[in-house]
Amino acid sequence: MSGRKGKIRKALRAVLIFTVLASGSVLWGCARQETTKTIGLPDTENGEKGFPGFVIKTIREYVYDGHSEGNLRFGWGGTGSDTAFLLRYGEKGYTFRKIDVNTKQTVSETFVDDRMLFNIQIAPGGRYISYEAETEEEAAPELVLFCAGEGERVVLRQWDECLQDFSYVWSDDGTKLFSWQNGDDPAFLPDTDWCVTCYDMDTLVRDNNGRLTVQKTEMKMPGSNYAWRHVLPDAHGTTVYVREEYETFSDSKKGEYLHGQAKKKAAQETNTENAEPEIESKGQPAKNWLLTPKEHRIEKLPEYAKYAVWPIKYTKNGLYYQSEEKKLYLAGNIEEKPEVKELFSVSNAQVCICGKGDHIFLAEWTDDLQNMQISGVKMKGSEPQTKQVLYQTACESADYAIASDDAAIVLCQSVYLGDDRHSFKVTELGY
């Protein structure tokens, strides 16, 4: 996911990617009635040419009721850890709960913040939470890291003025947080430059004053026009694929938003010499880079697609992306000479891919949008094996993601009960 988050709803968007459960935007409730159960399944194999497909070994469920407005994020611990994490909002602010899903008991509850939070991300494994918060009324926000183990906050960045929106994504192992400016806000001039910033949790230490600090690496990127920006770290955040896509913007963009035009004109009058010239998006090729934060290296990559595409996941297996025709592709060897292979059509399904790139999951609504169906495709190198239906359930809305250790897929469902009460069910499919 290039860090853009959301829900799987009945009105499906074109593409939405989750790499970890913490990347979702799920509303969860304060438990009133909770149940858990574990279902053991017999080992089965389903594949082609003797290659085994998915083997769903266990199904574990955690069910509870609650209000929607006070519950913000839900995270699942490592497979088999029996641990869930819940960020909720109450009268005194935000708290972070660690829950034993077997005993249905809250193991710990830690105060996070009493300000209004935005862009909340729970890191895989529940060790950290990142979010934006306003410092005071109508002031520019700051980026904050909450360390659950220490129960302390670390300010990662402070803004002196109101800038355009930022996006965020955690590496699959929960050790690195990446941030970057969105490039599609018409209220601002196209960036002359922008940054991909890496915050490395492995460098979390206390300074001489006893305060926690985190090392950050800023990678400056050249900007030239409005663009969709995709930032996809690999599983450990050691290398990062970046793409700027221009073809998704029409020639009429700069005339569609009067408020943006006014700001743009004022900026040009204030600093005419530094104002960016008008650049048409149409026909401008996309740009691709591979970043290595530790070595502070930015490598320009060759183009692999003739038309606008939506990158999904950067893995050891290659770069997965989706075309406008709803087909899934795998581009191997993107660093030197891309080798593109068309895999299969994904239709209206949403795609989730593990960090290694050998497990592909598809989520789609079936039966007149009454049921959510999860299917899986196992990869053998660059060859997809038989598509298998893994799970189907009746629900009104759902989110899903691959567990951080790539041993399960977790589906989060909700059903409205009335009087602002919901029934929530978390299903872990262990494979």
How would you characterize this protein structure?
This protein is mostly beta strands and 431 residues long. The protein contains 1 helix and 30 strands. The protein has a 5-stranded antiparallel sheet, with no helix packed on it. The model is unreliable at 1-51, 250-264 and 270-282 (pLDDT under 50).
Shape: globular
Helix content: under 10%
Structural class by SSE content: mainly beta
Question: Given the structure, what is the number of helices?
Answer: 1
Radius of gyration: 22 Å
The strand order across the widest sheet is: 1-2-30-29-28
Mean pLDDT: 78
In terms of quaternary structure, the protein is single chain
> Strand share of the residues?
over 45%
Q: Gap between N and C termini, in Å?
A: 22 Å
